[in-house]
Write a structure and sequence with these properties.
The chain has 18 helices and 25 strands. The chain is of the alpha/beta class and 612 residues long. It folds into 3 domains: 170 residues, no CATH class; 281 residues, Rossmann fold (3-Layer(aba) Sandwich), CATH 3.40.50; 111 residues, no CATH class. Strands 6-5-4-7-11 form a 5-stranded mixed β-sheet, with no helix packed on it. Strands 13-14-17-12-18 form a 5-stranded parallel β-sheet, with helices on both faces. Strand 1 and strand 2 form a beta hairpin. Helix 4 packs parallel to helix 6. The radius of gyration is 32 Å and the shape is elongated.
Length: 612
Amino acid sequence: MGADFNDNPMTAANDLDAAEAPPLDLEATNDEPMTGQQEGQATRRGSSFEVIEFREGFHNGVHFFPPSDGETEAKPIWICSPLRVVARTRNDHQEGHGRVLEFPDADGHLHQWAMPMSLLAGDGTELRSTLLSMGLELSQNRKARELLADYIQRARPERTARCVDKTGWHGQVFVMPENVIGRTMEMVLFQSATRETPGFGVAGSLEDWRANVGALCRKNSRLLFAVSMAFAAPLLALVGDESGGFNLVGASSCGKSTALRAATSAWGEPGRKQNWRATSNGLEGVALAHHDALLCLDEMAQIDPREAGETAYMLANGVGKARANRDGSARRPVSWRTLFLSAGEIGLAGHMLTAGKRARAGQEIRLADIPADAGAGLGLFEELHGHATGAGLADAIGQASSRFYGTAARAFLERLASNIEAVPSQVEGFRREFLAAVLPPDADGQARRVAGRFALVAAGGEMASTMGVSGWEQGEAKRAAQVCLQSWLAARGGSGPQEERAALAQVRLFFEQHGESRFTPWNGQDRVTINRAGFRRAHELEGHTEYYVLPETFKTEVCAGLDERFVLRLLKDRGALLTGGEDNRFAVKPRLHGMGPTRCYRLVPHLLEGTA
């Protein structure tokens, strides 16, 4: 596959301007007639249920006929408006059993709901609440309420379906709360205890979205990259990549939230955009609702800085906390797979530092900071598309995103599902070319790992362009990803290991803060040094100062939170640690005033100036 996806067979797909999937087609996988209700399942001498419509003397709906004594028939009990049980569901583990319920509301709109059977436990309040919110009319008679659960439970529809409890790829179909994209021999349905959908709504046509949202992203690297992430998210499962994220970092009102709104509009309504203001437990549920889709999180400063790092780990690792059942046995943790786009005025490491916590390299790899300022003097933007200011462009994108949404992702998924087997090789071929063009040969594994995620985002954007979904020219998404990658590398300090840069920065900081106050002058031993860390020796001819650091101070303060021997090896490799001994040990043993021969580390920190 070429870098421009020119050989992509999916380009032959029709332009799905409407991109709205039809209601669930329960006839699609079985030609046998459906008998979902219990009409006539018991004779009138016993009890029975019937769905009655347009019969004189009866209110339309489900009726229960009590058993008769052979001479007179008891008066039937009306339970609810017409409700049919049309299929049985279960998951891959033959658990999670449920029923597919179908009924019209008062306006004639047909509703279908894959209901978990677990809702029949207890008094059924949650079941009735959900049905009422969907428009089913229910009797308030206590007996009728009890009979509703009995009616559903006694149903024996012939149709069966596989149920799933989260959106995303399941086999070769992509399951959404309202529809399933792709074809399979077995019916697959999203089954949930409620009908609340996490922002998967649709408004307008694909052409509307392309003309009013997609077009305004062109020539703006951060906007193109953000929306490309929306197309890259469902590729994770197809190529076997792990979850991960990017964080747009910049000043307030520079356009970060606009990028999130544009990306969100590809998948659904504006309310789909989330905030960091939540506990890690709360974000588990949010991440689960965005399985195989893009998750947008605004305002990083709103999350507790003490939890920020671990939450970034959790989102990227794709697994929630381990919990126990009531009997003490291990409960299966929730899991997800997602790309997440974040925005904030401060990066992850800076936010954690406000709580006195240091970001680890693994955290910054999982959530990579991209400077939001594109360097054109317009904040996040580079091209205003006829608007006088960046604020004007931001308003236009915000208004368009609230009017046209949800169609782009559906159109993209339709095209992916039509030739899903070819996607992995196409993406991997593109990724190899992308990385060869942007990374130096000596780039470390950490940089390559994050750059691989940049490449996936570029692939998503380019595939959407080739398929006619984005409305962008070929190569635009790729160039935007390359620009953002270079900005990330520049802010990071290069393509070397993050741990080395962090360690060197920590050593430099120690001597910047304490080089004068905590080191006794070599020739001024009469001065009292409070909280002494060692001795310093000025070399006037060479114009630098050597520091003899006492070993415990070096271990507990200079290397706080770091591996001591890793730091020593690094400093020696950089020429900042002088050993002078033939045995190649790290420490030296000079005679120190008042201490005699003392083991310590001889450092020349000026050699670290300008190091990454």
